[in-house]
Amino acid sequence: MAMTRFLIRRILSGIVVLWIVGTCAFFLFFARNPDIVARSLAGRAATGAIINEVKRNLGLTQPIMVQYWQFLDRTVHLNFGLSYYNGGIPVSSILDRDIPRTASVVVGGVVLWTIVGISVGVLSATRARTLFDRFSTVGVLAGISMPTFVLGELLLAYIYVPLNTHGIGWITTGYVGLSQGIVPWAGAMILPWITLATVQAAVYTRLSRGSLLDTLGEDYIRTARAKGLTERRIIYRHAMRAALTPVVSQFGIDVGAFLGGVLVVESVFGIGGLGEDAVTAVSNGDLPTIIAFVLIASAFVVAANIIVDMLYAVLDPRVRIT
Amino acid sequence: MSLSELEFQAQTLGAAPAQAIEGRSQWRLTWARLRRDKMAVASMIVIIVIAILALLAPVFASLLHHGPNQVFPNSGLSSTGGPVSPGTNGFYFGTDELGRDLLVRVLYGARISLFVGITTTAIATVAGVAVGLISGFFGGLVDAVLARFIDTVLAFPFLVLALSLAVVFGPSLTIVIAVISFFSWAAISRIVRGQALSLKENQYIEAARSLGASPWRIMFIDILPNIMAPVLVLATLSIPAAIVFEATLSFLGLGVQPPTASWGNILAGAQSYYQIAWWYLVFPAGALLITTLAFNLLGDGVRDALDPRTERIFAARKKRRRRIWAGGPAAVGIESLVAPSTDGPEEA
Amino acid sequence: MTGPITPETAQVDPWPTDADLTDDVLVRVENLVKHFPVKGSGLVSRTIGQVQAVDGVSLTVRRGQTLGLVGETGCGKSTLARCIAGLLPATSGKVYFEGKDITNLPRRKMQPFRRDIQMIFQDPYGALNPRRRVGSIIGDPFAIHKTATGAARKKAVQELMERVGLNPEHYNRFPAEFSGGQRQRIGVARALALRPKLIICDEPVSALDVSIQAQVLNLLADLQKDFGLAYLFIAHDLEVVRHVSESVVVMYLGKVAEVGPKNPVYDTPRHPYTAALLSAAPAADPEAAASRQRIILSGDVPSPINPPSGCRFHPRCPKAQERCATEVPELEVKAGDMPTHLTTCHFPVQAGEILARSGRAPRGEAR
Question: What is the dihedral of CA A264, A266, A268, A269, to 10 degrees?
Answer without folding.
Answer: 160
